[in-house]
Design goal:
With 250 residues, the chain is of the alpha/beta class. Helix content is 38%, strand content 16%. It has one domain: Spore Coat Polysaccharide Biosynthesis Protein SpsA, Chain A, CATH 3.90.550. The chain has a seven-stranded mixed β-sheet with strand order 3-2-1-4-6-5-7, with helices on both faces. β2, α2 and β3 form a beta-alpha-beta unit. α6 packs parallel to α9 and α8 packs parallel to α9. About 5% of the residues have low confidence.
Length: 250
């Protein structure tokens, strides 16, 4: 079984469509879909409530005020672990990542026995050692400055983590339960960089990390990420990793 947590902040326009795009055949494997509304100022709450009324496997969690992406991820993981599912999925509510790919991603995760699988917007293969550097991200509307910054950071991250991934900054992630129970996720303090922290924790603790290619879609969604601040936070994660901060405590 799988559980999905869906970060949702001001996604009134996209939420219902994102949920509808989850393949019908996958619902038999879904234990629960947790929509985590992070204090949205639009009608996200109404859209989420309606979805929960229509499907008993959808649960709407409402934060009274915006707490930030990191808080949503920590809360979402904790809720999904209570479902006792083997795989936990982070799928954003704005539809930027394709729910249609979940069956393929689950198959890749099982086939390579991965503990963490990230969707790569820049290419990649399921074993986590891909060397495909496609330009699909640019064709999908990724701004050039983001693509260039991502290439630079990815090169540095691969050196630090001793991996050959093509993208460390996609929010489309699948986690194995056995990893999350030992990940120390509840102690992570990150904001948007928490996804990278979870990759760092997996690598530091000896779990298997991989990626699979996904399409890039930029269609007018509002980004709440400050690129300069995020870049600095990424560098801090790499520094903490080198200092052993993500390794298991004995």
């Amino acid at each position: 079984m799988i559980s999905i947590f869906m970060p949702a902040y001001n996604v009134q326009k996209y939420l219902s469509n994102t949920v509808e795009r989850i393949p019908n055949g996958l619902w038999n494997q879904i234990s629960m879909l947790h929509i985590i509304n992070d204090g949205s100022a639009d009608e996200t709450a109404s859209a989420a409530n309606l979805l929960a009324q229509q499907n008993a496997k959808i649960r709407h969690h409402q934060f009274p005020v915006n707490q930030g992406y990191g808080a949503v991820v920590r809360f979402g993981i904790a809720e999904c672990l209570r479902d006792d599912s083997d795989v936990i999925v982070c799928l954003h509510g704005d539809g930027q990542y394709a729910p249609e790919l979940l069956p393929q991603m689950l198959e890749t995760m099982d086939g390579y026995r991965l503990d963490l699988l990230q969707g790569s917007r820049l290419g990649g293969r399921g074993n986590g050692h891909g060397n495909s550097h496609g330009n699909g991200a640019l064709a999908g509307g990724m701004p050039l400055y983001k693509w260039l910054a991502g290439q630079c950071l990815c090169s540095l991250e691969n050196r630090v983590f001793n991996l050959r991934l093509t993208d460390y900054h996609s929010g489309f992630l699948l986690y194995r339960r056995r990893y999350l129970l030992k990940s120390g996720f509840e102690n992570l303090k990150g904001h948007f960089e928490i996804d990278l922290e979870l990759i760092a924790s997996a690598k530091a603790r000896g779990f298997l990390v991989g990626e699979v290619a996904i399409p890039t879609r930029y269609a007018g969604e509002v980004s709440h990420l400050n690129p300069f601040d995020y870049g600095l936070r990424v560098l801090q994660v790499l520094w903490r990793y080198l200092r052993g901060k993500y390794a298991a405590k004995h």
